[in-house]
Design goal:
Length: about 290
């Protein structure tokens, strides 16, 4: 098993987003709004289907509130009702219309009403039915060369996967495991501080990752996960930024790493740790001899 996750990141959707499936880094991208000129005057784009003879193929213009909701969702990648109530409610109300529009961009919308969460991911066109919570969008290993896009026979996707470091992936695993344990105890809002994360991380250091835990590494990872809507900063000591910070672990994490997958990952980490311990015992015995 690979010890590092992959995340899906938006390449041309504005502010980056991370869709986990074995982990993903958020990617800052170009948010320049296309102009009417560079859309309508592109003579190279195929348009044989969008003719007066096929008026039913033309995409109708949506209402302003729906357009704005789609744009905001695509820029953010994910949003929660508690921070974007109006946008959230608009998307839920017009779910069918928005889902139909996004399908043309090879995107699908996921509305998790129990968590009051909405996020987008690549559309899985190989499936004839809707994806389950733990299903994975089709991987995109490389960014598409825009110059060759007209030559592609397969579908193109806006969200691509990039591997995170083993250290970042380990932090995600630790957070997901802690989230699972606390919600099993009945907690609704799961909060964790940096010091406790470091304590949970210590058994894996030099075994799973050959590095020491330091504030610089950890703070960098946590900042990326905030961008990915995996965690949210809720407090921080301005005199010592990072050390006493507290984060809420957001529900997004459970939809991207399911309980079954979590168990499998944990077993792999435990095997790695136990294997390392056996090697250490052998070395100790050889020294004693």
């Amino acid at each position: 098993m690979s010890n590092n996750f992959e995340f899906e990141t938006e390449t041309n959707l504005g502010t980056s987003f991370a869709d986990i499936v074995n982990g993903e880094k958020v990617n800052k991208t170009n948010t320049e709004t296309p102009t009417a000129q560079n859309i309508s005057n592109d003579d190279d784009l195929p348009n044989e289907d969008l003719t007066e003879e096929n008026p039913s193929d033309l995409v109708l213009e949506l209402k302003r509130e729906i357009r704005n909701a789609i744009i905001i969702l695509m820029r953010r990648g994910a949003l929660y009702r508690k921070s974007s109530q109006k946008i959230y409610d608009t998307i839920v109300t017009h779910e069918e219309t928005i889902a139909s529009f996004l399908k043309n961009l090879n995107l699908q919308i996921n509305i998790k009403k129990d968590a009051e969460l909405i996020y987008i991911e690549n559309l899985n066109r190989e499936s004839n039915s809707n994806l389950d919570d733990e299903d994975v969008a089709p991987p995109v290993d490389e960014e598409i060369d825009e110059l060759k896009i007209d030559d592609l026979g397969d579908d193109s996707y806006l969200i691509t996967k990039r591997k995170m470091s083993v250290y970042d992936s380990l932090i995600i695993f630790i957070l997901r495991k802690y989230y699972h344990e606390r919600t099993e105890q009945g907690e609704i809002k799961v909060v964790i501080d940096v010091e406790f994360i470091q304590n949970l991380l210590s058994p894996y250091l030099k075994t799973v990752v050959s590095t020491t835990s330091n504030n610089s590494n950890l703070n960098g990872t946590l900042k990326r996960l905030v961008d990915c809507k995996i965690i949210e900063l809720i407090s921080s000591n301005s005199n010592d930024v990072g050390k006493n910070s507290r984060y809420e672990i957001l529900p997004m994490i459970k939809f991207k790493i399911g309980a079954t997958e979590l168990e499998q990952i944990q077993l792999e980490y435990e095997k790695l740790i136990n294997s390392n311990k056996k090697l250490s015992n052998i070395d100790d015995e050889q020294l004693d001899d």
